[in-house]
Amino acid sequence: MREKKEHIVIDAFEADIEADYLIWEKPKKQKKYLEKIAAHIGKIIIEFNKLEWQLTEVLKQYFCDNGEELSAIYYDLISSRNFASKVDLLKSFYKVYGNGTKKSVFNSSEELKDWDKQVDQLIEKLKKSAQIRNKYAHCFWHRLEQNKFVEFKSVIDSKKGLQKVFIKFDKQDIKDDLQTISDLEIDLYNIDSIFNEAYTST
Fold it and tell me: Residue 151's beta-bridge partner residues?
């Protein structure tokens, strides 16, 4: 992925209220590219949503075992959180429990002795997956330029002023990003399986 920034000056009288697409020299080529990239974006968002579902289910198995009424309330509290908040909850639960009354179980297990480090690595990957999803979902694709750079966001710098950030994806970027999220689903499953053994041990 490549990135570029351009300085901009805001003029309220030039507001793009109609949100028109940028016009390419070859509109058919533009349409074809947008259709192709839309399919790739869809795959990444679908895979990310699958990961979020998995994360919710992991939390559910530990927090929603207190009878029908309480389980319903706890599930609502979990499922209504955004992804980042669910990740923070998972981190807190894993770490507090791993350093609690069953700490000896974790310390004596070859798979769990570096538990805090494993949790930190998992959390870092989960947060990265959200960044991957966001860079596709939050691009202003109707502002796609002929050089394939697309407007992503605006940032302000004390020295450089207001700038628009553009990013450009290539095929390998898209392939790698999709694979990263897919691999993370396996990582989350494997780590939770190890944790669950300690959690359910007497």
Answer: 140, 166
